[in-house]
């Protein structure tokens, strides 16, 4: 089991639920991506309460970008790759949460609901990223946290934060707000 930097299992709340990587689900989540754009290699999901009630659900991920999907090698992880990796983490954590019933907001969803909504109904409505130290993209880790979810007027609003880092001290982070239209009730 992969533990992120500056963390240990002992610091995780005792009521946490750890869900190991699901290779079959990961392959299904990444199916819409072209073969050379499947950067997410594995993910664990940890539930520490529910984001509707001050809890959080966390995805801890491993990535590899052997070659950029859109530009010659820049020598560092850039904002386009940040966004692609964010989307892959987010899609996986939501799919895993539907499958394992990890967040109350997704209890009424079936996997068929998720597959129908994955691309057309999940929107990034606010995206902020900060690059502190240049990060290489060949092999790195990332983490996403679902920290708040609200359902209002036929929309589901989700607040997330994320970060990425490599073994050479590179790191960046971001805050992303999502909206899901027409969530199942």
Question: Can you describe this structure?
Answer:
The radius of gyration is 16 Å and the shape is globular. With 185 residues, the chain is an alpha+beta fold. The chain has helices at 23-29, 79-100, 111-117; strands at residues 17-19, 40-48, 56-63, 122-133, 140-152, 155-165, 171-181. A hairpin with a 2-residue loop joins β5 (140-152) and β6 (155-165). It starts with 16 loop residues before the first strand and ends with a strand. The protein contains three helices and seven strands; from the N terminus they run βαββααββββ. The chain has a seven-stranded antiparallel β-sheet with strand order 1-2-3-5-6-7-4, with helices on one face. 32% of the residues are buried. The longest helix has 22 residues, at 79-100.
Helices and strands, in order, run as EHEEHHEEEE
**Beta-strand level of the residues, as a percent range?**
35-45%
Task: Report the sheet with the most strands, covering strand number, pairing sense and barrel closure.
Answer: 7 strands, antiparallel
Task: For the largest sheet, list the strands in their spatial order.
Answer: 1-2-3-5-6-7-4
Shape: globular
Low-confidence stretches: 1-14
Q: What is the mean pLDDT?
A: 90
Q: Any idea what the radius of gyration is?
A: 16 Å
Helical content (DSSP H or I, runs of 4+) = 10-25%
The beta-strand count equals 7
Report how far apart the termini are.
35 Å
| Individual helix count | 3
User: What structural category arises from helix and sheet content?
Assistant: alpha+beta
